[in-house]
Amino acid sequence: MNLFRLCGDLSHVISIVLLLLKIRATRSCVGISLKTQALYLLVFVTRYLDLFVTFISLYNSLMKVLFIATSSYVLYLMLTKYRQTYDKDHDTFRIQFLVGFAIVLALLTPHRYTMLEVLWTFSLWLESVAILPQLFMLQTTGECENLTSHYIFALGLYRALYAVNWVYRYLFEPDYWQPVTWVAGILQTALYGDFFYYYVMSKRRGKKLKLPT
C-alpha cells in the first residue's frame, strides 16, 4: 500500500458514491449505461473470487465486498426501481465483442494456468474496456449531466492514480513485475483521454459537459 494506491481506491469509492447519488437524487438512471455497469459487476465477481481462499487484510477484503455489493445494487436500481428511466435506445454498444476480447487475452496472457489466475487476468482485460459502452452512450447523446460527468471523471482518475502507483512500486519494489496489469491499465486510462479533455474544458467554462457527436 502506498499513497497513490490509497488515493486511487478513494477515487474509486467516490465514483461509486457519485453514481449512486446521481441515481437516487434524480430518481433516474438517464445517461447511465446498463451495459457498462453489468461489465463492472462481472469484472469484480471474476477478480475477487479469492475472497473465499485468500485473506490479505481487512481493508482489502472490505473493499472487494464493497465493489461487488455496490455494483449489484446499481444494477438492481437500474433494472427495477428506475427501469423506466433507462435509455436503452442509446445504450447500444455490442459488449459481446468486449467480453470476447477479454476471454481471448485471458487465455493467452495469464501468469499461471489456474482457474483463479485466468479469471483474474480476464477481469483485468475486461475492466480495461468496460467503460466503452458508457463513453459511446455519451457520445451518442452529445451531453452529460454534471453528476454523471463527475462519476466518470472520478472513475478515470482512479485508474490514472493506479498507473502512478505501478510506477512507484516498480521503482521501489525490486521484484515487482506485472506487465499484463500495466498494459491493461494503460489501455483503460487512454480510453478516457477525450473525456478528460472535454470535462476539464467544460469546468473551465462553467458549462455542462458536451461531447462531439
UniProtKB/TrEMBL annotation:
GO molecular function terms listed in the Swiss-Prot or TrEMBL record: ER retention sequence binding
Location(s), subcellular: Endoplasmic reticulum membrane
Keyword field: Endoplasmic reticulum, ER-Golgi transport, Membrane, Protein transport, Receptor, Transmembrane, Transmembrane helix, Transport
UniProt topology in membrane: Multi-pass membrane protein
Keyword Cell cycle: no
UniProt KW Endoplasmic reticulum keyword: yes
Source taxon at top rank: Eukaryota
GO biological process: protein retention in ER lumen; protein transport; vesicle-mediated transport
Entry GO CC: endoplasmic reticulum membrane
InterPro entries named in the record: ER_ret_rcpt
TM region(s), chain numbering: 65-83, 95-113, 119-138, 180-200
Chief location: endoplasmic reticulum
Family note: Belongs to the ERD2 family.
Name of the featured protein: ER lumen protein-retaining receptor
Native organism: Cyanidiococcus yangmingshanensis
